[in-house]
Amino acid sequence: MGRRVQRRELTKRQNLRYQVIVNDKNQMELNLGGLALGSFPSEIVNFSRLEVLNLSHNALSSIPGSIGRLHHLKVLLLNHNCLTRLPETITNCTNLVELNLTRNKLGALPRYFGNFQELNGVATRREQI
User: Fold this and answer.
1) CATH number, residue 8
2) pLDDT tens digits for 5-23?
3) Partner of 39 at 20 to 30 A CA spacing, among 4, 10, 13, 65?
4) What's the superkingdom here (predicted)?
5) Best CA proximity match to 82, nearest among 48, 100, 58
């Protein structure tokens, strides 16, 4: 089985186009990696069934608290950004099993990261601190 691709416009303000992919396991994926985004597109949280979100290789300095509304999220790729902190509401993403935070400006992981039940691992490196 292949992927069904749905093209939609995410935001007219940035004239940003993206692909929502539903793979053969019926998982919804959104790839916004490498688009030089300076801010988190607020429309992302409208994809309540989103399971894979790639925001890697952008210029994001923060993630809004609304990220916690993505309850089905399993994979979150935030590597190669400028993040200095993460909102505590990220722990509402209770199905998260993979989180990549490498190449950001984060210090130590916050204590609330211990609240993740399903998280298999967090990829971090402190090269840019």
Assistant:
1) 3.80.10.10
2) 555 545 444 556 666 666 6
3) 4
4) Eukaryota
5) 58
